[in-house]
Specification:
Layout lengths: L1 E4 L5 E7 L2 E7 L7 E7 L4 E5 L2 H4 L6 E5 H6 L5 E6 L2 E6 H7 L1 E2 L10 E5 H4 L3 E4 L2
């Protein structure tokens, strides 16, 4: 398992097994880790799952992605997001280019880039089952 600590003091862990790289974030001062997603190494895709009622930032109608993971990515080029309405596939670069920063007071949240649902839904590859 590899680990790296951001300048804000958040620790990222990456655990490679069975063709996947599992990424977990441990926020500074918090014990429990947050699942960022897993990378399918064979095709360089970060798989993430979301629930709209829990993860969608209503004010921006957008999903957030960890900015550090997107910027520093060496093992994935695309993001496959699945929610209860379908599966969407888009490039990491699209999220970086079209995403917006929303500013929070320091409340334990990591820096995130928010990509509008309007952009994400243009990249639907499968309806929900």
């Amino acid at each position: 398992m590899a680990a790296i600590t951001s300048k804000e003091g958040h620790r990222f862990e990456a655990d490679e097994k069975d063709g996947f790289l599992y990424i977990t974030l441990h926020l500074k001062g918090k014990k429990a880790g947050r699942n960022i997603g897993r990378v399918r190494l064979a095709d360089r895709v970060l798989e993430v799952s979301r629930k709209r009622d829990k993860h969608l930032m209503l004010k921006a109608n957008a999903y957030g992605f960890n900015e550090y993971v997107l910027r520093e990515a060496k093992r994935f080029d695309k993001i496959e997001l699945t929610d209860e309405y379908g599966t969407y596939l888009f490039s990491r670069q699209l999220a970086l280019d079209m995403g917006k920063y929303l500013h929070f007071k320091e409340e334990g949240f990591e820096k995130q880039i928010f990509l509008s649902l309007n952009i994400i839904t243009n990249h639907k590859i499968q309806d929900a089952i």
